[in-house]
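[scheduler] slot 2 assigned
[scheduler] job type: sequence-to-structure, two independent chains
[scheduler] chain ordering preserved from manifest
[runner] begin chain α
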Amino acid sequence: MRITRTVAGRSRRTAVLATTGLTAAALLLTGCGDSGSDSDEADADGNITLTLADFGQFGYKEAKLFEKYHELHPNITVKANTAAEEPVYYTKFLQQLNTGSGLADVQGIEVGRAKELVDTKADAFADLSKVIDTSQWVNWKALQATTDDGKVIGAGTDIGPMSICYRRDLFEQAGLPTDREEVAAKLAGGWEDYLKLGEEYKKKAPEGTFFMDSASAMYNGVVSSGSEQYYAKSGDPIYKESAGVKEGWRLASQAVDKKLTQGLAQFQDPWKAALRQGTMATVACPAWMAAQIATYSGDKYKGKWDIARTPGETAANWGGSFLSVPAKGKHVKEAGELVKWLTAPEQQAAVFKAAGLFPSNKGAYELPDVKTAKLEYFNNAPIGEIYAEEAQVIPAAVLGPKDGVIKDTFSKQINNMEQRGTKPDAAWDAAIKDIDKVVG
């Protein structure tokens, strides 16, 4: 989802991206009360209210799923409390877990927090392995919320399989192929080929345009394709020697040195303005990113964007979330059934259609709203096909308790290389110093 693919320094997604036969439209997020509160007890007639605390956009309101659940279960009303910023939400969530008070019946979890909660707070959650069939999910997604002894603390919601979003019109002006299959063929060798394509683009680039928005976005794409990223299977942090991190850093440094990037921190106002002005030719594009591009680029660039498969043969994922049930909730059984229903194929497909959040439940991939989904805004790109193929071959990544913070810190220093002219070695040293303080 949603924008908080890394945890700190980003707001959640603020756009709806409709799929088959529909168009993209903006949906500004606002905070909707606290991030969690105690549920009401059942009234004399057995009616209860289930609270669901989340952050940004999970797509349930857009897909009108709470109303549908009430129709199916007239005695249950679902009340969602949405926090606009995930870091604020998570801080409060930890406090509530520690005290056992103020928790909602269902709580959202960002993937960058999953490992920390699995390792340190698993006892605070109901075991969803007794409620859901984890084999329905892409295997790497289910593993992210599973303890070593098999307890499942979260049911997967969305995921972020990678692609490359690109401007067909700018590619044509620069003498590059515009067909998505031809573009994918140019990137078949991996992210090195992405930079080579950038150098080709630069030779005839339309004035005032740049090949990519941000080297840090490419960096995240590179790192996200590996099974060991910031932590080893042993649980030890390896961000200093990780092959994926070093490769991502090397390529990001080259992109900056070759002046292929506009140097914009993603999701900030200058980045949004650049989309409106049409100055970026490509964006490293997890599934949820298309909504951002369509919203901020606006009608002027409808049909001029397209989507090609991610560079190389190695699939990558950037982001995703879960729904959990706190063990001390007042309606644990009913909350578990709600989570099971919300994350079932039909509901995940409905969320995808309404909000562009790609399902983690494999059963959704065979439903029409996913399987045949195309994006009119992106030249009718067959996103259901592109992202489903990617999702099922993504390697199971080792998660660590500080994944989100580490990723954000490296990204920040890459932005410093772009915006402040910081030399790669100095930026690397600064990133390691800051990460060491957090990881210990």
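[runner] end chain α
[runner] begin chain β
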Amino acid sequence: MSLNVIDLIKGQLGPALVSQAASQFGESESGISKAIGGLLPAVVGGLANNADNPGVVDAITKASSSGILGNLLGGSSSNPIITTLLSSLFGDKIGGLVNSIASFSGISNNSAGSLLNLVTGATVGTVGKYAADNNLGASGISSLLNDQKGIISSLLPAGLSLASFGLGAENWFGQAKETVSSVTSTAKDNIAEGVATARENVSEGAREIREQFENNNNNNQGGGSIWKWLLPLLLLIAAGYFLWKQCEKKQTTTTMTSTSDSTGTSVDTAATTSTPATTATPVTKTDENIDLNGVMLKGYKGGMEDQMITFLKTDGYKNAADDAALKDKWYDFDHVNFKMGSSTELEAGSQGQLDNLVAILKAFPDAKIKIGGYTDKTGNEASNVKLSQARADFIKAALAKAGVGAQVLGAEGYGSKFAKVDAKASDAERAADRKMSVRFAK
């Protein structure tokens, strides 16, 4: 399975950056997050579509050493690498892309434009860093980008498509153009067939009417005059009726076959309509005071700290007979996130929850835990297991450094073994499978 570079880039666009961007641009965090969710597949798609462009590959190579990843909010908008690259990727379609994202996410066009620069900076910086870390040359970067063509369109959020960005589907992701041509050709063939059938039916109807006319004429020589004007009228009505029925039949067939899944977008050759998917409004969580024997920890009500403290205070751990009674209950970290592709660097805001876990273990010195790392179903499984194991080991080492190492009995990376969301689902949906967790153990 090909590496999904979007999963690498998300580490740079985590909750901490979303919060900072919302504050800097004067937008809601949900709007910023929604905009990033639409921009990221579009930018990666633009790179994939230009995978063999030497200028694009060169920009990615330079970005890894430009320091842009360390200053996404401050340096992306004015960085010449980014502005030149965007022009190469989207040309005169940039305005349409920005307008679509602004409308989709409910933020201003100025904010959407700034986010486009930011996301592009995070993308090329991340891909460039990955290439440098893995010794990928120009051909390796091109191959990596080409691998993204099969998955990008499926990652666009509901309500967005390449067409909605003003990007011609015939120029994106390989087979789209062939699909459109095939559909158009089929529609033409169907219409031609319908016209031919209609002509045959009209001819047959005319023959029957003519025979009836001749029979009547023979039976009543004096009554034939009415047919001089009635026959042409009947022929005209019959022709119109058969043509209408046949074309209606073929148009229905064309409409039913005009949606292409090859790029995840709809080819609207027969004026079809679609009902937009309903998206759930994200629930905003706010840190509250969690009571740890009189000491107040900052955490979500019902979050990891709250659940663990409640379990320990109610003697749930003490009363558990053995490890088997504890192994099925995992507590997911709410704040601990690693930077893209890293197993040694945490995002800003992660350390606070690790400190909370240390405080809980020190308050209950008899409690023992295990650490678990997880990924979603995308990417190479061997790499997923390796990364999740390294991250679990990092947290275990951090707890040991904080003085509670004796209470950590183990750490294991499970890769995508327990992932539930399909690999073709949106990135936002698959985020539920990418996590770090902890459970009590004996």
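[runner] end chain β
[qc] chain β: Residues 258 and 269 are 6 Å apart (CA to CA).
[scheduler] slot 2 released
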